[in-house]
Structure formats: C-alpha cells, structure tokens
Amino acid sequence: MAMTGYRVGIDIGGTFTDFVLMDAAGSITLYKHLTTPHDPAEGALNGFIQLLKLQNLSPSDVETLVHGTTLVTNAIIEARGAKTALLTTRGFRDILEMGREQRYDIYDLFLQYPEPYVPRRWRIEVNERMSRDGEVFEAPNLDEVEQQVAALVEQGVEAIAICLLHSYRNPAHERAIAERIRSVFPSLAISVSSEVVPEIREYERTSTTVANAYVQPLMDGYLERFSKALAEVGFKGQLHLMQSSGGLTAPDIARRFPIRLLESGPAGGALVTAFMGKQAGLDQLLAFDMGGTTAKACLIQDGKIAVAPSMEAARVHRFKRGSGIPIKAPVVDMIEIGAGGGSIARVDSLGLLKVGPTSAGAMPGPACYGRGGSEATVTDACLVLGYFDPNFFLGGKMALDLPAAEQALARLGEQLNMSHQEVAWGIHQIVCESMAAAARVHIIEQGRDPRRFPLMAFGGAGPAHAVQVARRLGVSEVIVPQASGAASALGFLVAPNSFELVRSFPAKLSECDWQAVNQLYGEMEEQVREVLAASGIAAEQIIFIRRAEMRFEGQFHDIDVPIPNGMLSQESTAQIEQAFVEEYTRLYGVVPPGYVSMVLNWRLHASGPLPIERLGRTASKLDASLTVEGALKKERLAYFAGRGYIPTPVYDRYLLPVGKPIVGPAIVEERESTTVIGPNDTLTVDEVGNLRIRLA
Amino acid sequence: MSTTQSPFDPISLEIMWSRLTNIAEECWITLWRTAFSMIIGDAQDFGCELLDARGESLAHAHRSMPVFNLTLPQAVRLLLDYFPPETLKEGDILITNDPWMCAGHLYDVAIVTPVFRKGKIVGLIGSIAHCSDIGGTLNSRQAREVYDEGLQIPPMKLYRAGEPNEDLFRIIHKNVRKGEMVLGDIQAQLSANKVGADRLLAFMDEYGLEDLTELANVIQNRSEQAMRDAIRAIPDGEYRSSITFPGIEEPLTLPVRVVVTGDELLVDWEGAPPQLPYGAINCTMSYTAAHSVYGLKCILSPETPSNAGCYRPIKVIAPEGSILNCRYPASVAQRTNTGWHCAPAIFRALGEVIPERVQAFTGMPMSMTAYGYDAERRLFNDHLLQGGGQGASAHGDGKSALLYPTSAANTSVELFESRTPVVIEQKILRPDSGGPGKHRGGLGQVLTMRKLYDDGLPVQTSAPVERSFTDQPGLAGGLPGGRAGAYFSEKGEKIDPHSFDGPVVLRTLDQRMTIEIAGGSGYGNPLERPLEMVQADFDEGLVTVEGLKAYGCALDEQGRVVRPAA
What interface predicted TM-score (ipTM) does this complex get? Predict the structure, then answer.
C-alpha cells in the first residue's frame, strides 16, 4: 500500500468508544461513538468509518490501526469467560481456590473472595512432579492425560490452563502435555503457565494462567470477527493491540496472551502523559485521571511509564487490596481509588463526613443531574462551589440542577450542623485529600518524593480537582493537556511496539552461572524477535532493555536493577552489584551490612521504533490575534480556601492565547472538562496548547 | 468557613485521621519489603502502629497483626515507665521482647522510636515483628520456663542518641539461629520506624501542630463513643460459654463470662485452669486481653478504625497464675494453642444475643518448619504457614483455607522448597472437613512433607500435635469441622501422633510428616441446608457420600443427592 502516514487509535470503553486519527504530521481528529456491548466490533467498525469520513478518508488509506479494549477486563470482572479447566500437579488442585489464605480486612469476619474461574471438578491432577531444580521425579503419562482431557471436552470445556509445580524451572512436562492436547483437540484454547508467566510462586502463576485461558476463546473470536470486518471494508494496514504494559503487540500474540490486554485503556492514558510531558519538557510526572466513579494515578519517571509486574483483577471490594485475583503480567503501575465525580458523600457512625467509594454512576447520577439521584456527590459539591456552570456542563449538552444539589448537600449539613456550602467545601477537600493520600503512598512505594512530580490531569473531573490535589501533595505545577477526553486512544498512537519476557533463574550474584544466563537471554531475544517480526519490525530496529529483580539473600521483595546488554561474564558482577546497592540505598536509605545479593528473575524488554516525535499544533493556538480578554466568558462566584465566595473570571479554553500569564482565581471551561485555578496560582497556555498552572 | 473552624471540625478530622493511618501504612510497607525471614517477608507476621506521647494507640497499618496492635501500647507504656520520657534523648530507640510486657512470647520483638519535636516527645512509632528465631529449645513441648525458650530482651535501648548499642546487637546475633536473618529483620523494623517518624513530623509541620494531644483525644474519644454505642445495643446481662481444647496432657476448658452493663463490657475468665508447668501453652495477661478484645472489636465495631479509645469500655480479667494469666517465668512459646481459643469462646457466649454478628469456630492455622543443615553445611530454618477452614456464620459458608485470627498470608510451596531441601507432596483440601450446617464451615487442608535428597542428613520438622485435636461445635445447631491432626509415617505406615514427643526428624526418603489442618465449624441445622447446595458440594468433591449423612442426604439410583423424609 502507499505510505499515507495515517494512523488510527480506537479505545473501546464501557460507555463510549473513542477514536483518534493522526496524520503523518501528527495532527489529530477526534470522534466518539457509543459502545455496542452485544458486539463491540460493530461499534468500533462503524465509528472507524465515521471518523475517516470527517477527513474524507477511507479504510484503505489507513496504515496502522491501534486498538485497545475493555473486553478482557469486563469478561474477568463479570465472570463471562469460557468454560475453563485446569491441569495441575498431583496434590495441588486446590491451590487456585486457597489463594494466599489472607484476610484483607482484619476486623471483618465475613469476608468474601472471588470465585475461582475453574470449578473444583474441572481442576484435574496429573500424575507428575518436577523438583525445585527442574529434575524429573515423575514424568506424566500422556495417554492418561489425553483421557482426562477427553472427559473434560465431553463436559463442554472450551479452554485449558496447564500449571505444574516448578515449571518455571523446567517446562518440559507442561510442553509435552500441551503438545499432546493440541494434536488431539485442536479446537481447545490452551494456556501454558511456563509461557504465560514463568515465575516462581504457584498460586499467582496458576491464577494468571487460568485467567488467560478463561478469556482466550473470547478474544480469539472477537479479533477474528474484527479483522475480517476490517478487511471487508478495505483496510489493508497493520492491526496492533495495546497491552497493559503500554506496549503494542500483534493480533496473534494478543490471542495467545489476552491477559496482557487487561488494562489497555489506562496504559494509553499513561503513554499520552509521558508523550505530552516530553513535549512540555517534563520527564517526571504524575498522570491523574479522574472520571465518574474512580480516579487513577500513574507515575512517569525519566519520561517512561512505570510498569509493575502484576496487578489484582476482579476485586470483591474494588479498593481493598487482597480481595481480588492476582494477575502476573506487566501492567502500567497505577493506583485506583474510589473517588470520582459521582462518588457519594455520607456521614459515618463516628459523625465524620466520608466521600465514596460508592458512586451514583451515570444513573441516577449526582443530584444535580436531575435523573432521580438524591444523594450529594463530588459533582454536586463542584456545582455549589461555583466551579461548574449549570448551563455549560459537557459544553452545554446537559443542564445541571443547582437547587437539587443544594438540597442534597443541605441534608448532610443538618447531620453535621453545617451549611450546604460548608459541606460542599468539605466534600471537595476530602476527595482531594484521599486522592492525594493514595498518590502519596503510591509514589513513596516507588521510593520517590511526591513533591517532584507535576500533575497531568485528565478525565471529566480531573482538571477541576487537580490543583487542590497538587497543593496537598506539595507539587508546584499542574498541566491540563489538549484532547484530554480521548487521552487513551491518543496514547495508543504514540506507543512503540514492544514485548516483555521474564525468566526465573535464581542465583547469588557472585556464584552466577553466566553461561546459563547468556543462553537464557539469547533464547528470550530470539523469541522477542519473532514476536516483533509479526508486527513488521526488523531485528535491527529493536531496542533491548534488560533488567533483573534483585534482593539480598533471604529477603522476599525485589528491586529492579538494570543489567548490561551483550555477553555477560564474571566481570559483569561488579557493575550489577553497584547498580543494586545504589537502587537499594535510594529506596530504603541504608544497605544492611554483610548480606549477599541475589538475582531472581531476568527480564527482557524489547521495543520497536517510536511512531511519532510530536503532535501537530491546532491552528487556533497559533493565532496571534487571541487575547486574554477575548477568552473571557463571564465572571461568577466561586469558593476558595480562606477567601470564601469571590468573583472569578471564567475563560473559554479554545480562545486562550499562548504565553500570556493569568493570575488566579480563574476557571477555564472546555467541552469535556473544567479547570479550576486557585487565587495567586498562575495559568499560562504553552506552545502545544497545554494549560500550565504554577501553584502559588 | 475553613478559617473560622476549629482545627478538628469533621472535615479536618477526617483528613488528619486518614493521614495518621497513612503513616502507619508506610511503615508497614517498608518493613515488609526489607524483611529477611519467610515469617515476616512472605507470611507478614508483624505490625506497625502510631501512638500518642502517652503510649495510647492512634492508628495502625491495615494489614498489621491484630494482636500486635493491641499489645504494643502496653509495651510502650511499660517501656516509658522504665525509661521516663524526660530522660530520653533524640535518637534513642527502645526494644523488648518480654512476653509479659509485650506480645506473649519471646519471638515477638517490639522496637519503639520516640518522635521528638522541639526537644519534646510528641508521639511514638512502634513495630512488633515475629523474628524467625530467638534461640532456646526447638522442642517447646519440653519447655518448662521462659529461660528454656531463648533470649530475653528486657527493656533496653537499641540505639542511644543515634548510636547503635553494638553490645546488644552482638548478643542477639550470637543467641539465635541464623543471626543474620534475625538482625536483618531488626534492620527492617528500624527502617520502618524511621520512615514513620519522618512522616509524622512532616504531617505536624504541615498542620502546624505543636503536639498530638488534642487530636489524639478527639480521635480516641470518638472511637470510644462508637464502641460504647455498640455495647449499649446489647441487652444488659451475663453471657456464659466455654471452649475445650487439647491442652498438653489432657483437654482443658476455658470458661468465659461476658458481662454487659450499659455501655461497658467485662470479659471474665474466672475458672481458667492453672498455668501448666511445661509445654509452653501459657498465655500472659497482655496476650489474653489482646485476643479477647480483638474478637469483640470484630463483632461490635468492625468499621471503626482501631485505636486506644475503642478498648476503654472493655475490661478483661483472668485469675493470676492461670493458663490465661501466667506468672513469670512460665513457658509461653506456643501460647497461640490456648489464646486463639479466647475469641471463639466469646463468640459462643454472645452468639445467643447477636447471632448475626458472630462466626463459628475457625480451624486454626498450623505451620510445619524445616530446620537443619544441607550438604554444604548451610543452615536452613523456615516456616510453612497454612490456614484452616473458616467458620460459617449467619452470612454464609466459611472459606476453605483461611488464616485466622492472624493477618498473615500463607507461604508459597515453591518458595519454601526453593529455600529448604524438602518436597511438599500435597497441599489439598480435606473433603468432609467443613463442619456441616445450614451454612457449611470452610474445609481444612492437608500437607505432606518429605526430604528432597537421600543424603541421610536430618531435617527437623515440628509436629504441632497439641493443636485443635478436639471437636469444636458450631453455632445455632451447626456441627464441628474436621479435627486437626499430625502424623509421622514411614513406608506408608502411620505412626500415632501421641506415640512420639517433640520435634520429628526426617532422615530417609521413606519418611513423611503430614499435618491435617482443621475445618471450620458449621452454622445452623445441616438438615436445613438447601438440597442444591449439598448437591453442589458433592459434585465438587467437598462432601463425600459418607459426608452426605450429616445433611440427612444420600445418593439415589441415578447418583443424585436426595434427602429422604426423616
């Protein structure tokens, strides 16, 4: 096909599917379409065509389509996956159900845990056993396994997870079993733990492999339908999928490891933050995305998104750590808390005002939506504080009912002996504090100083709260980028193709068998080249980054240490040791004396070239005739700490000139969100159209 | 508005309160991530807490060990009696593992850092962690006195004005197995306390607080009020019950009397058996009180954040010299075998008035240890901690395999095998071990260990033979869960658990150690369990043909579960 340079990002969310078209110069076009839950491929395809029509293009003009979806997440949360069985080592069929056996709330006697995706009758024990060093104690009888699987197929099983003890050390048994099953039952979806997550700890490996198998048939069917439909409308370019880690991958790999797509949306948001940050000259940032039900925060360090090795899915209590299913797959390292525009405020048994995590959602929604909601929410508070214009919500598409908000707040006020305005200010403060608190812990867990990370705000509610959150974190700057409404889909278009692999091979650093490590990295590099070749990336374009998880012998938690590329040898020891000690000191202050350093997992991250250097500028932003006065819409009373209700100018974001400072208080309105700037804070629009707010 | 309000209006209070919890949480994460032993780093047997200048608790981390949260305040107050605050200097750090002052056995080491602001102590950060070893005998059953159980650390300074007390570090190192592991864990506690102290000062700066007195009073008084309200909701009266457990030579019974008077509650263990001369299952009063009030907190006021105020309306007494209030120098290392029965006894007593709040007996956790030297003379010493079946309740069935009443996690089999030369041959649920009831108790589990190598080297493992070998009745007509068990076997032949005494040594590949962890007891009459739930349990292999009988069920000719009319 001709090199047109057109690329499209599609993010299928719960309510809306977002579309972004980007041309070779980086100029973007946005489109939104309602998601079609019965078959998301349908809405995605229709929206894709509508988006292209806006620029008089057709599918055949598009070179690359990057796709992210909540399909996997929803299947996991709603337990709508395939009929899945588990083959495991004799004596261990219940590992999946037992989990870590930990209570996630020490005062709650009636804790609930997620149901395992495989019922006990389909958790089948194989007569086999491998030692910790990968020696075979007992080899599986494949004929026997075949009979066991035949019985499962008879019962309607569609997917099989294979997870045997110590397979991260020697995958031979898992592979032999998988091979036999594939040859006899080619229609079964098969997930093998030594491929999905070859890491020590039997429960987390099992839960991840099972979840992968559980969503495999679904993803398989969806991608098949979508690819076919794309071909029918004339699309001849490359289709990529966004992984939770922020890397793109080919459809084949997505079909093998669908669990790696679990958090594709948030990954897009993080990527766009890193990208926009780079344009703004910032490489340390906190991405802050606040929507209707939750707020998410993610760190950008040295211009890169932080990627965690695992996450928890399908929590019984969304915000309680330990109440979900551990998924060990690289994922953008974020925290999610129950504080969004719809979060409900209430008075608890101690007489304290609490906000969230219960949300009024879109229906009935906040009291001010006038859809029957009577409980006071974060949005109601913003309205009463004067931050939102009742007649310019969603760009005026929706009118807000101010008296309804006031009444809801007044009802809480009666219980607290406070006015409705005081309650509104209280809700605003509490919600900002809980976001700041969660972000603070998250940043400190990474061993970083929260004050060093300017906030980049997204989401419908993000820009209205970002300045307050920043103030509580001690952060001096807030950035509100353009197109924050379709951030994830835009993020898809700035990501390189990438893939990550990991191998467990624990060794003391000083006694490490470097020949074995070299071989291990050789194999991983080979495997990654194949994966990336599927996305059309040549071997010489690939950038490899090696890291290892290290700890002192006897410890249980690792820190991430850079490992040099190329052949490793005894001489590499000193360099790796030094890197380890430096990182440990940074995180925990002091290195305990006299302990032996160890390497546990060897990681390889491989990525292709970056697709684009910078976004194109929107024409109006360059218009020299724009003035601050011209952008002024009106003035209204808005509430600020220590000042009460004061007259506050309201600006139209689309008319603000570049580089002209405005001293707060100020409110900036755009279609998808409203930015609130406190007294004496300074707002400037930068060259790429970001709102830059410097806190007083 | 905010300018005219007192610093502690409901909004500021909510914010400051959660900030204090946040500080404790940061301490916890630091300790967890830097620990060296499996018991702390993997199983999480530790806690972190923030206390006011008087040693009254203010906040603990979410996953803090419940009993540590409740025993640390007493330890801190006694440390401050010993080292009066006016004599302490900035940079002093206090330590003790005295079982009577602190958490009931020598393994639990408390480290307390006073936080100074403008030369005055404004609060304390404390942590208690279960160290992997504290010296002494590995055969607790034979222990007669605390002297047999390892190193006693009386109230001491681990740091003096910022300088480490090297003598004490050397004494600890020399007196415990794997000294570097134990000292590594102590370093982790020190880091955690340091993080907490730094954060507390930053918090006080931010809010311009000169001390925490006023804030502490408000927080503790509100929590106290919530607990008083919860107690007042229970009709005044005396509620009695008892619980029987295996003891050492013979089963023992703990009678309990719970007295509710208005908004105050008394737990009286009058009638508890005398302390035992050996066997290490004696509880100190601090430990008994902690397990009694922890259970009450769960059923009375589970949603209130825990602090000293919650416990003011509750008094716990036990006769001096009894197994629940033992005198120095009784042996106490295995005090969980007794103390973990306190809350279930209280639940039974209060079950008659607040049946929907309590839970039937939960099968107690057991741990198998593996200790010895490998062929390269490297020492190994790790704990394989696993949970029993959760007791059922009015709310539903119990979970199979859950660690209660600790906040710990289990240990990974693969990780355990990678650190010790043993093979775990099975870790699996025990069918029929869930106590039958309208709501079924969770199932217990069985684990079997053997040696990895045929090298003749001994692997010493523990045989917790005294734990949960008795039936524990359920609530509201529920039946007992499967009892705990432990046995040694050779060439497939079982050896009676009571025919051997003390630690078990595995020497050949034919020898096995097996532990069977108890299931949870049931709730409600098993005959009322809906047939389709019995069928589902049967289909899943959780209940066998034999087990159907307790539900009044059997299989029909088609192999379906039926319940013939009685």
Answer: 0.94
